[in-house]
């Protein structure tokens, strides 16, 4: 065996892995719509909203024009069924929408579309922003557990934040107590982990490097979604998403 072959075999034996291939997610220039559902497994009114959100899997506008996410809140847990997907931080985000005047109160199922309350989800197709409204390009590059984000805005801003979430799909729970006792619930677009960081100005660009949000719940099918907003502003500047390669 040649010396080069021996070296190659030694490297394989040492378990050295090839560098992770990058996954890239790029938004359009026109603003994509961010759709937030606030829901809970402890709420008997929520399963119809969960099923409606799952129907968006077949929407041809998914990820490039429409980015749906489902935040499970924890304020229903006291009725006997702790929602395993819920987190206090998710409920806090909904309460921040109340404080900002987006919602009249924290309720489920509650839908926020592009930073505004939207009650038409039962009967209407999700309306999109004007295609002529240039927002800028949000680009994410994921390598393993690291994500590099770059946003080139169409309109200058003094400060911007990046929200990054990991989403789970095809998740099921056999509910044993509370308002949905005895039911088997299925969920998609579930926020399993959420990270928010300040973007740093780099000329006309805004950049950040961060870890992919971790999760305590397993999901065979996952996606990544992100949006950019000014600090304290519920209205997203731009959003993008896409499937995660296992």
From TrEMBL:
This protein's source sits in the domain of life called: Bacteria
The keyword Disulfide bond is annotated on this UniProt entry? no
* Pfam families referenced in this protein's UniProt entry, alphabetically: DUF1223
Using the record, list the residue span of the signal peptide; answer none if the entry has no such feature. 1-22
Entry keywords, A to Z: Signal
- This protein is called DUF1223 domain-containing protein
This protein's species is: Plasticicumulans lactativorans
Phylogenetic classification of the source organism: Bacteria, Pseudomonadati, Pseudomonadota, Gammaproteobacteria, Candidatus Competibacteraceae
């Amino acid at each position: 065996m040649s010396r080069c072959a021996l070296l190659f075999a030694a490297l394989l034996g040492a378990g050295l892995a090839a560098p992770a291939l990058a996954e890239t997610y790029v938004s359009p220039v026109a603003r994509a719509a961010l759709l937030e559902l606030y829901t809970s497994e402890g709420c008997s009114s929520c399963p119809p909203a969960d099923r409606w959100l799952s129907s968006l899997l077949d929407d041809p506008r998914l990820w490039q024009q429409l980015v749906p996410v489902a935040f499970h809140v924890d304020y229903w847990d006291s009725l006997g069924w702790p929602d395993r997907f819920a987190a206090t931080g998710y409920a806090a985000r909904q309460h921040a929408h109340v404080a900002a005047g987006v919602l009249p109160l924290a309720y489920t199922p509650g839908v926020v579309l592009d930073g505004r309350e939207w009650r038409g989800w039962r009967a209407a197709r999700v309306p999109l922003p004007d295609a002529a409204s240039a927002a800028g390009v949000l680009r994410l590059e994921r390598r393993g557990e690291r994500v590099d984000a770059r946003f080139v805005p169409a309109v200058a801003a003094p400060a911007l934040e990046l929200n990054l979430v990991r989403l789970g799909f095809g998740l099921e729970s056999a509910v044993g107590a509370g308002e949905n006792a005895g039911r088997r619930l299925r969920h998609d677009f579930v926020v399993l982990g959420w990270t928010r960081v300040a973007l740093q100005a780099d000329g006309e660009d805004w950049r950040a490097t961060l870890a992919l949000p971790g999760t305590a719940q397993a999901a065979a099918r996952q996606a990544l979604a992100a949006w950019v907003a000014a600090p304290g502003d519920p209205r997203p500047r731009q959003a993008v998403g896409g499937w995660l390669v296992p």
